[in-house]
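Figure S4 source data
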Amino acid sequence: MRPRSRIAARKLAAAAILALAAGCGGGGGGGGGAQPPPPLVITTTTLPGGTIGVPYNRTVTATGGTPPRTFSLMGSLPAGLTLATATGVISGTPTGPEGTSAFAIVVADAGTPQQSLTQGLSIAISATSLGRNDSIATATTIGNGGFTASISPSGDPNTVFSPDQDFYRIVTTAASTITVDIDSTDSGNGAIDPVIEIVNSSGTRLNTCALPGETTFTSPCVHDDEELGVLRDPLLRVQVGAGATIFVRVLDWRGDARPDAFYNIHISGVN
């Protein structure tokens, strides 16, 4: 009986070892578990302003986590705008009043455990400009911030060489180094190719600008392409004194822009 007992004991030990190996996920690949998803990151940290009566469309973007990601709102968007919870798109047409709405977007992924992040944002809404602003006399007064606008068509027949253009008035109370940045958006009706020029009240171009990459403010204040090969992103920096009034001219030389061809204008540094 003793030899049989030893054989039985050995069989039981072997079975236990095999069971233990199977329980550890043995065979094949060592380690076994799935890799955790990358951390969730909200990449949108600011949003441009909007204009009453002008369609608005911007996307809050995020990366990482386990798709699909969902977007939810804490607080209130400006009246007329809504958030698409599946895509993070904020869209609509602002109805007013003027002012800045502060809110937060919460992004959550579909993983277990779930990842979520919150990003504070704001959108400034400005009033609709009264009538056309295609001359110095009808210029729209603006300050620091981001604004969405549509180009004013020239109104001239195609046989007349006349650009589509808008004018914006900037007034300083102290010496300022002002940055004017334009980027065009395709609203589905084609995007304009904007050029910016900074002039005085007589329409004379200033010569106190720094073009992209320059450190001195001695260049003529006109610019087309901030980045070579990108035709819709002019940028200028201009230095002016206290109590100055300058005018930013945004124009599209094609002369065939539609009134629903939008662009964004970003102003900073006004004191």
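Figure S5 source data
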Amino acid sequence: MSTPPILILAEGELLQRVIVRFLVGEQFARNQLLVASTSAEATRMLAARTFSLVLISACSIDQHSWVKKIRSVSRSTPIFALHLTKSLGVQEQMVAAGAQGVFSWRCSWEEILEGVHEVLAERVCLPEQLLHYSNDQKRNSVSADPITRLSPREQEVFGLIGKGIISKQIAGQLHISPKSVETYRAMIKKKLNLSSGAQLITAAVSHALENT
């Protein structure tokens, strides 16, 4: 079975060419890279076929809104955002909207490529600076529902754990590998400050009971 293509949602033909040339130079086949110029075009393409990744980049458009629109169409397709903003708050908004990777154009090509591969492998990949900012924000928001710290996919996994479903069955339901499920479980434990699998199950079941 062939790997689904990558969808590049980028503002302007020049930016699209730069991204395509970079990815082709790193062993991605040109026919595996499809391009969209608007979020409306991208959502139509996502509704019509499966993609392994959506790579979003823009100079003047609010990328946070683009991430939200893509996530509203597909809850499972990994999203990687390349941005120019210096605001860690804006970058955090992209993560909250559903991006698994958020990198600046100021990063090296090697760092960006590593991030793309990490997100393609269904792993969250964020710069250290943004991770520190996210942790500080969470410590300052003690009244917020801790479940909102989780990405949409992590919330899906957390909800299935709360229903008593084991990792192998979760993998089957979400069409991902058991290894990916274990990665999500580890991320959930880290974000919710849980130290064991037993604590994770207890938290998931309690949350499920509270919301029934």
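The beta strands are 6-10, 33-36, 53-57, 79-83, 101-104. The mean pLDDT is 83.
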